[in-house]
Design goal:
By secondary structure, the chain is mainly β. The chain has 2 domains: 1-30; 33-199, Galactose-binding domain-like (Jelly Rolls), CATH 2.60.120.260. The protein contains 1 helix and 12 strands, in the order H-E-E-E-E-E-E-E-E-E-E-E-E. The strands form 2 sheets. Strands 1, 3, 4, 6, 9, 11 and 12 form a 7-stranded antiparallel beta sheet that branches. Strands 2-5-10-7-8 form a 5-stranded antiparallel beta sheet, with no helix packed on it. A hairpin with a 6-residue loop joins strand 7 and strand 8 (128-134). The protein is globular.
């Protein structure tokens, strides 16, 4: 009987601890807020500002990372495409940007075609480049990028993805599942990293023209 009571008491204590840990985890999770509108592009990208020198729609069902819709920049010669959104970052917060990206390319030497991730604070003369991806990256592999935006906490910024290609052998840049999370100041700082995900190799174009007609008109 004493052993039974001891085991029962230990089980109750463990269950109580699990409840406490679960509550703390839920509280920590709820202290973060999503700042990007329509990061998965599933509503057609209406929250994003888009610009394409070739006149193409940048929101497409061609090759999303998840869901049915993603973003597709470049994919033609002399491309100058940009996808951007203006967001307000709360003060005294740890802010992280995450997104998934993939490339395919016809380039045989590198680097020629690039995609820059930039931040332009309101009132700044020029944007800060946080990350540059180029045609030398592994092709046909979805990867996740994680960048720390805490330096800009308390500011209004314009977050942009800017793709450029040269005069031949274009590169296609795919983006999806963009997120900017602002968390309490006690949250550990996010370290920039990129990690590979599942491999998926879409067929590459055989001509120097974009591989599809715009599926969703530019806003």
């Amino acid at each position: 009987m004493k052993l039974y009571n001891l085991v029962g008491g230990l089980l109750s204590a463990v269950l109580g601890l699990l409840v406490i840990v679960g509550s703390l985890t839920q509280a920590a999770s709820s202290s973060c807020s999503e700042l990007i509108a329509e990061g998965g592009f599933e509503a057609g990208g209406a929250a994003w500002q888009t610009r394409s020198s070739g006149g193409y729609a940048l929101i497409s069902s061609l090759h999303p990372h998840s869901g049915l819709i993603g973003a597709y920049l470049g994919g033609y010669d002399n491309a100058d495409d940009e996808l951007a959104q203006t967001i307000n970052l709360p003060a005294d917060s740890v802010v992280s940007l995450t997104f998934w990206w993939q490339i395919t390319t016809e380039e045989i030497s590198h680097p020629w075609d690039t995609l820059d991730v930039t931040v332009l604070p309101v009132g700044a003369a020029a944007p800060d480049r946080l990350l540059r991806l180029d045609d030398g990256a592994p092709a046909g592999v979805w990867q996740e990028a994680i960048l720390d935006l805490s330096h800009y906490a308390g500011e209004t910024i314009r977050l942009a993805f800017h793709a450029r290609t040269d005069e031949d052998r274009p590169t296609e840049f795919y983006l999806d599942d963009v997120s900017v999370q602002a968390c309490g100041a006690s949250t550990p700082t996010v370290t920039p990293t990129a990690r590979p995900a599942s491999t998926s190799t879409p067929s590459m174009s055989s001509q120097a023209s974009r591989r599809y007609l715009p599926l969703i008109a530019n806003k």
